[in-house]
Design goal:
The chain has 172 residues and is α+β, with helices and mostly antiparallel strands. The chain has 3 helices and 7 strands; from the N terminus they run H-E-E-E-E-E-E-E-H-H. The structure holds zinc ion.
Length: 172
């Protein structure tokens, strides 16, 4: 396994919609293993393929105390409820905001072997999936915020790029 480099905003392909995964096999399994290792080494709870420079509809996640999960070509079919929670992103290191997300979602996807998955997720798991799913559409969490908050965040981002400081808390 190998730790991959994490793509940081605004580098490609972070801001592009990712292409569907069409080929399942050992190469995909290897990529997923590397993404899981990269996620753990970065203390993230989720990682999408565009964050390691690969524009494919593929994400991995792991809830605290949970097992790593891989979703290929995920679609969010239903969304209900709304809650705010602080989020960060490995592609926007040091930036955090309270982001509104649905509290229950229904997801259709494939596993790493191409088998169909259809399940419901709630609360923190639903939040991680929505965050990573957004990466596959070329969206980052500030886009889920109102314009003023978003502008303030990106101003903070520019400021941090000029004066780096150590970061903390959970990112995905
Ligand atoms: Zn992220």
């Amino acid at each position: 396994m190998a730790i991959m480099n994490i793509t940081v905003y605004p580098d490609a392909p972070l801001l592009e919609p990712a292409a569907r995964v069409e080929h399942f096999g050992p190469e995909l399994v290897k990529l997923v293993e590397d993404m899981v290792e990269t996620m753990f080494s970065s203390d993230g709870v989720g990682l999408a393929a565009p964050q390691v420079g690969i524009s494919r509809q593929l994400l991995v996640l792991c809830e605290p105390e949970g097992e790593p999960v891989c979703l290929v070509n995920p679609e969010i079919l239903e969304m209900d409820g709304k809650a705010y929670m602080e989020e960060g992103c490995l592609s926007l290191p040091g930036l955090y905001a309270n982001v509104p997300r649905a509290t229950r979602i229904r997801v259709r996807a494939q596993d790493v072997e191409g088998n169909p998955l259809d399940f419901e997720a709630q609360d923190f798991l639903a939040r991680i999936i929505q965050h990573e799913y957004d990466h596959l559409q070329g969206k980052l969490f500030p886009e889920r915020l109102d314009l003023m908050t978003r502008d303030a965040l990106f101003a903070e981002w520019e400021e941090m790029r000029e004066n780096p400081r150590p970061d903390a808390a959970v990112s995905n």
